[in-house]
Amino acid sequence: MPELHITGDDVADRLLSDDPLALLVGMLLDQQVPMETAFAGPAKIRERLGAFDAATIASTDPAKLVEVFQQTPAVHRFPGSMAERTQALCAALVAEWGGDAARLWTDGDPDGATILKRLKALPGFGDQKAKIFLALLGKQYGLTATGWESAAGHYGEPGSFRSVADIVDAASLSKVREFKKAAKAAAKGS
Fold first, then answer.
1. Which segments of 62-123 does DSSP mark as H helices, in order?
2. Would 189 be classed as within a structural domain?
3. How far apart are the first and last CA of the chain?
4. Per-residue pLDDT of the chain (190 residues; tens, 9 = 90+)
5. Rounded to 5 degrees, what angle do the CA atoms 102, 79, 72 make?
């Protein structure tokens, strides 16, 4: 199993390392909050819900799931909409993949382009998020699918520090933050 170091919390990082669903949900939550907060979300959900599997999350009363997301510290700064998105993601996994997130990248020995297409079909996963997640699988999760690097675009480039896919320690986290800060500044300047 991979050993991820994204959140700075051993329990949260172990869950991400051991559970493909946790990694996928962490990626879903990775917007408008620090990466560490997003990827620590699955551990908070598991602790508060008492379970962490797609079927349980998909079948949880939506109001209860929002409460799980709202508890302090909150899972996300937008607990209502992100609880809804997490539930939609889990429902899609149950309906299409038997509740097993890893099947997205293992069923039928798919190539990188196929995995990217499968990720983009998920609720809450657009092109960029799908490419970042594909790069995370390839760079840190042991994915060896043919063509994953090219399917992941710039995020698949070795030695780049563009996203969560490149975070392995505090130094790489700092480099990713610097890249994102520079990209935001460049976007504002244009």
1. 62-70, 79-97, 103-106, 112-120
2. no
3. 43
4. 688 999 989 999 999 999 999 999 999 999 999 999 999 999 999 999 999 999 999 999 999 999 999 999 999 999 999 999 999 999 999 999 999 999 999 999 999 999 999 999 999 999 999 999 999 999 999 999 999 999 999 999 998 899 999 998 888 988 998 998 888 888 887 6
5. 105
Q: Is 15 within a domain? A: yes
Q: Could you give the CA distance from residue 65 to residue 70 in angstroms, rounded to a whole number?
A: 9
Structure tokens of 36? 């560490």
DSSP 8-state class, residue 97: H
The alpha carbon torsion through 29, 32, 33, 34 (nearest 10 deg) reads 100
Nearest to 5 by CA among 179, 165, 177: 165
159 — alpha (psi -120 to 50), left (phi > 0) or beta? left
Tokens 């657009």, residue located: 126
CATH code of the domain containing 116: 1.10.340.30
Structural domain count of the chain: 1
Provide the domain limits for residue 152.
Answer: 10-156
